[in-house]
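Exercise 7.
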Amino acid sequence: MITTVTLNAAIDKTYVLSDFQLGKVSRIGQIHAVAGGKGINAARVLHQLGIRTLATGFVGGSNGDFILKNLDQQQISHDFVKVDDESRICLNIMNASNGESTELLEKGPLITEQQLAEFRQKIVLLGQQSRIVIFSGSIPAGLSTSVYAELIEALRKTNAAVFLDTSGDGLIHGLKAAPFFMKPNEDEIAQLTGKRPENETELVQSLHQLADSGIECASVSLGASGSMTVYKGTIYRVRVPSIEALNPVGSGDAYVAGMAAGIYQELPIEDCLRLAAACGTANALSAHAGFVKREDVDAFLKQIEIVQL
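Solution. The predicted structure, written as tokens, is:
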């Protein structure tokens, strides 16, 4: 089983408008609402790939009830800690006239120490049942920026491989706990290593620096240019096919899910990277975050190019 952790779960709501202008009254053409947050997005992709998965984290209020009901409708197993405050709504406004996307992200609920203690006990039990635990997304109010590092340490006695996909101080602290896998972007690489890479040669150096700090596998997204990954000290350059993206939101979550699925199935690392890239690319063809079609994934698997540097 793969467990995904979303500390700051959300209702991901998408508005599709024929034309969106700031300061003007806009008529909404389409509305789509689904359980979201980075870990839930990853869980949905894993489910679509046929991988046994369970989603956990915190949910609260009527928004939390919607999230749980929506996960049930999608047949995604879950085990969340319920809190008093409302779970957040993340709004994505899609401008159909030019393809632009504007995101409005609420802060989320306040989590107490007692609720965190309850969750810590839960994640250790789930870690004992899981091959992989994925921590994804922002840290809700009330929790320290070191919370991911603390939870990773709590899983140290289990056999679960830990994936971490977050940002800011949570990522910096998380690095110290040496998860198996991380997915920083180019800006976050600078936070972790002290220097922003200006070219691929410097990015290779930064990835080696991460590997030297104890990270077994780290991937950096290069957008439409693909990605670069270090695995056990070896660098892999991944190139993806050019597509006309409908909505790239959630592609990073799909990439993490694909990588986790590959590791879970004990595929060779190049096949893991190929599956991750195919999932990230397939997600961009959907109007909604964290959705892939298996036929799209299979088609992209044949088009991914990987070079070992």
